[in-house]
From TrEMBL, chain A:
InterPro entries: ChsH2_C (IPR002878), NA-bd_OB-fold (IPR012340). Residues 53-112 form the ChsH2 C-terminal OB-fold domain. It comes from the Bacteria. This is Uncharacterized OB-fold protein, contains Zn-ribbon domain. Pfam families: OB_ChsH2_C (PF01796).
Automatic annotation (TrEMBL), chain B:
The keyword Transferase applies. The keyword Transferase applies. Pfam families: Thiolase_C_1, Thiolase_N. It comes from Muricoccus roseus. This is Acetyl-CoA acetyltransferase. PANTHER family: ACETYL-COA C-ACETYLTRANSFERASE, NON-SPECIFIC LIPID-TRANSFER PROTEIN-LIKE 2. Keywords: Transferase. Residues 241-372 form the Thiolase C-terminal domain. The lineage of its organism: Bacteria, Pseudomonadati, Pseudomonadota, Alphaproteobacteria, Acetobacterales. GO terms for molecular function: acetyl-CoA C-acyltransferase activity. Residues 25-181 form the Thiolase N-terminal domain.
Length: 131, 382
């Protein structure tokens, strides 16, 4: 099955796990996600001068809310949107599996889950509460 | 960023509004010219007296100003169109002020006008896929902010809902407001859930409208015999955008704080002198967070101030969003920032019938826009 956004993530090789595709500034070690063609915004380093790296996809919940209304076309609700801090220190927003809001500090990992789209099912990146 | 202290004095001499309303078939030209004619009448000026016009709009399209203004007269004036997201009207006002302050023009117009539904966001065209497009939606972004403030400062659902109660109550007394009904705490809390703890009455409505503000130099006021007693001085004008902050910080809040304090410093006034603040309350949580960031009260004490009625009209302190704010008065984008200034001028003149904040002399208009940008103005009556 194809990935919904192959520029953002890839299979980790372990079951349904995913890694996130990022850039690292070789001078400062600063990370940037997603891996854009424009480079690292914080330092202005162009993408071709940055290192392509993979992030583990493991992290913890900082904040989480339930979206109750379909606020954009095709959005299925209820939807859990969370702000996460990955092990590598980077903070990003992701969609959590399920409908129960986890408490701040809950450990999560990135997984690839089938999602129906026009043209057939694809694998989308979601975050699952870690066992 | 710059204040106006080192430049010629600038005063607001005329204000006009087309009431904010839910989307209609009314052409934007009708909305804009209604506000403009009202502002000219308020100032006692004729259209040919105005030599510069900044048109703030987010959705109308290319050359909105010329297409509209030719119907009141093609006088050869300088016209500039300004899009700065929600701060478009604020930036139009800043441009008009700077044109007069710098001596480029004697009388300048800032006019915000918008219709709902045709705006496009550049963020949707940057070619970058999102892990979570939902997190880019303002209601979700501010629901996350509300959750952070709940976790850090114990902010409750009721605390946030009180912002909506206050602002809908103010809007009910404002003839230019989109919402004209007072709401109870129960009504706000029981309205449709949107995201997190935000309910529909805690979110700004979609709409349309127009706001016009005319500014003039001292020389123009004298030459045209305008009523100086009703001319409100613009003490400062600042504009900036977000700084990067540490990952867990809120760069938006840092920007609000920095730009607000900069506007006050440039005006040479302290927050304790501010009688009125009009600020960006598209979602209830914003009013509390931004008022704290601007220094109206210590961090984490906004909810208590709201409960005690200190931000009310006539509450004994600084009235926050006496117009009804974006929640109650509405947020048609292009006009919103100019509408804040119009409300403040009405209040500082003592002409805000039915919602007058007693003794108001100095006020802060503070607006943010998607991106994010911030624009702040301090105004004062003599």
């Amino acid at each position: 099955m194809e990935l919904l956004d192959p520029s953002l993530y890839a299979p980790s090789g372990a079951n349904d796990g995913a890694v996130l595709l990022a850039l690292r500034d070789p001078a400062t070690g600063a990370l940037a996600f997603p891996r854009t063609p424009y480079g690292i915004g914080g330092s202005g380093t162009p993408a071709e001068a940055a290192d392509a790296v993979e992030l583990s996809g493991r992290g913890e919940v900082l904040l989480c809310v339930t979206v109750h209304q379909p606020l954009s076309p095709g959005m299925k609700v209820p939807l859990l949107v969370a702000r996460l801090r990955l092990e590598e220190g980077i903070v990003l927003d992701g969609i959590l599996e399920g409908t129960e809001e986890p408490a701040p500090g809950t450990k999560v990992r990135a997984v690839l889950v089938p999602e129906e789209r026009e043209g057939g099912p694809v694998l989308a990146c979601r975050f699952r509460v870690a066992a | 960023m710059s204040g106006l202290a080192s430049m010629r004095p600038v005063r607001v001499v005329g204000i006009g509004m087309h009431p904010y309303q839910f989307p209609t078939e009314t052409p934007y030209v009708t909305l804009g010219l209604t506000a403009l004619r009202q502002a000219l009448g308020d100032a006692g000026l004729s259209w040919p007296d105005v030599t510069f016009a900044a048109i703030g709009t987010g959705a109308i399209g290319m050359a909105a100003g010329r297409v509209m203004l030719r119907h009141i007269g093609s006088t050869g004036l300088e016209v500039m169109q300004i899009e700065n997201a929600s701060a478009s009207g604020s930036s139009a006002f800043r441009s008009a002020c700077l044109m007069v302050a710098s001596g480029q023009h004697e009388i300048a117009l800032a006019l915000g006008v918008d219709k709902f539904g045709t705006a496009q966001r550049a963020a949707h065209k940057d070619g970058i896929p999102r892990l979570t497009p939902a997190a880019e939606i303002p209601a979700v972004k501010f629901a996350l902010m509300a959750r952070a403030w709940r976790d850090r400062y114990g902010l409750t659902r009721e605390d946030m809902a009180r912002v909506a109660v206050k602002n809908h109550g103010n809007a009910a007394r404002n003839p230019y407001a989109q919402f004209r009904k007072p709401r109870t705490l129960e009504q706000v809390l029981n309205s449709n859930p949107v995201a997190g703890d935000l309910t529909s009455l805690q979110c700004t409505p979609r709409g349309e409208g127009a706001a016009a503000v005319i500014v003039a130099s001292e020389e123009a006021i004298r030459r045209h015999g305008l009523d100086r007693g009703r001319a409100i001085r613009v003490l400062s004008s600042v504009s900036s955008s977000e700084h990067a902050v540490a990952d867990e910080g809120w760069s938006l809040v840092e920007m609000v704080q920095r730009s607000g304090l900069s506007a006050l410093a440039a005006a040479g006034v302290g927050m304790e002198e501010i009688d009125i603040i009009e600020l960006h309350d598209a979602f209830t949580i914003e009013e509390i967070v931004y008022a704290e960031a601007l220094g109206l009260c210590p961090l984490g004490e906004g909810a208590a101030q709201l409960r005690e009625g200190k931000w009310d009209i006539g509450g004994g302190g600084c009235a926050v969003n006496p117009s009804g704010g974006l929640l109650g008065m509405g947020h048609p984008i292009g006009p919103t920032g100019a509408g804040q200034v119009a409300e403040i001028v009405r209040q500082l003149r003592g002409e805000a019938e039915g919602r007058q904040h007693p003794g108001a002399r100095t006020a802060l208009a503070h607006m943010i826009g998607l991106g994010s940008v911030a624009v702040g103005h301090v105004l004062q009556r003599d």
